[in-house]
Amino acid sequence: MPAALDSVAAQRRRLVAARRAHWRRTRRITAILLLVWLATGFCTVFFARELAAWSLAGWPLPFYLAAQGASLVYLAILGAYVLAMRRADRRFLARLKDAPEAAS
């Protein structure tokens, strides 16, 4: 019976390690994408005077960046998050499927 308990304990350790790795990856992805979001919103406003000299179709560039560019970047951030989290979830599920086989 102690061998069976060791097997269960080892499987539990692998499960906990897989969960930790998954959440570490999730937090890193979220932090990076939040920094991109912050930079997009901040840089448009902070550099508006310098960018005002440039125009696009008669409108100042900061107008386009604030009105259109930021929205497109936000959509890209959402798409990147979806793809990254799908990949992270697949890795987590693969680690969960491998854990019981390794214990047997």
TrEMBL record:
<keyword id="KW-0472">Membrane</keyword>
<feature type="transmembrane region" description="Helical">
    <location>
        <begin position="61"/>
        <end position="84"/>
    </location>
</feature>
<dbReference type="InterPro" id="IPR019886">
    <property type="entry name" value="Na_symporter_ssu"/>
</dbReference>
<feature type="domain" description="Sodium symporter small subunit">
    <location>
        <begin position="19"/>
        <end position="92"/>
    </location>
</feature>
<keyword id="KW-1133">Transmembrane helix</keyword>
<protein>
    <submittedName>
        <fullName>DUF4212 domain-containing protein</fullName>
    </submittedName>
</protein>
<dbReference type="Pfam" id="PF13937">
    <property type="entry name" value="DUF4212"/>
</dbReference>
<feature type="transmembrane region" description="Helical">
    <location>
        <begin position="29"/>
        <end position="49"/>
    </location>
</feature>
<keyword id="KW-0812">Transmembrane</keyword>
